[in-house]
Amino acid sequence: MLFRALALLCLSALPALAEPICDPDRGTALSVTGVAANDTLNMRSSPAASHALVARIRPGETGVTATGRVAWSKGQCYTTCSGAEGGLNDTGRSIAYACKAKGQIWYEVRRKNGDTGWASAKFLDLADDGMVVEPPPPPKPEVEARLSYSCGSAGKMTVVIYKGGKTADVSIGGKTYFVLRKEHIVLRFSYAAGDGARLRGGTELIEWRWPGGNKVTCTGT
């Protein structure tokens, strides 16, 4: 699918759009929608799911805003949204919302900590009137298991596995990494993330690999 990323313009040069769903103004508050409480929305280096992962947004996270850059899929979505400056009629509005629901509109977004990347508008809602709205806290995922390991010079590592075993948080070195279950015919625990992070092993002995490729073997405590 081809996308056309629009150049970032000064707000003063941007005419007001009748449908901000096509092109939210810079600074417009965004919130994650349609993502499970124990999952995250990926931010990519470019507007396509196949491009490099740069960060993740958790449901309920605040301080996420639009940068003013957008990308629309080639064809009807591009034709409709690129002509939205004069306002969309009911048909055009229906097309724009359908494009968003199908993942054919992407926004470049910025997190509160400065992380910037592209995310599918399918999983983003615009806050009313561009104001930052505190969304209700997502349901807290149920913990299935909490494991502790000693990793030598790397210190302690905690692995929290959520109900169902499909997702987990790995905390080591002051950072927490969100990983997904990867089936393995031998290993009890096998988790990985798109940025290269990986966890493999069992309760007594386990190997952790950081996104950069460095590894450490840890023993259960």
Task: Give me the secondary-structure topology.
Layout: E1 3-5, E2 30-32, E3 41-44, E4 53-57, E5 65-73, H1 76-82, H2 90-101, E6 105-110, E7 116-120, E8 124-126, E9 143-150, E10 156-162, E11 167-172, E12 175-181, E13 189-192, E14 198-201, E15 205-209, E16 215-220
Antiparallel strand pairs: 1-5, 2-8, 3-4, 5-6, 6-7, 9-10, 9-16, 10-11, 11-12, 12-13, 13-14, 14-15, 15-16
What's the quick description here?
The chain is mainly beta and 221 residues long. 9% of the residues lie in helices and 38% in strands.
How many H/I helical runs? 2
Number of strands: 16
Largest sheet, in brief, is: 8 strands, antiparallel, barrel
Distance between the termini: 49 Å
Low-confidence stretches: 1-18, 129-135
Q: If you average the pLDDT, what whole number results?
A: 82
> Structural class per helix/strand content?
mainly beta
* 3D shape: elongated
The share of residues in helices is under 10%
Rg from Cα:
20 Å
Please report which band the strand proportion falls in: under 5%, 5-15%, 15-25%, 25-35%, 35-45% or over 45%: 35-45%
Order of helices and strands: EEEEEHHEEEEEEEEEEE
In spatial order, strands of the major sheet run 9-10-11-12-13-14-15-16
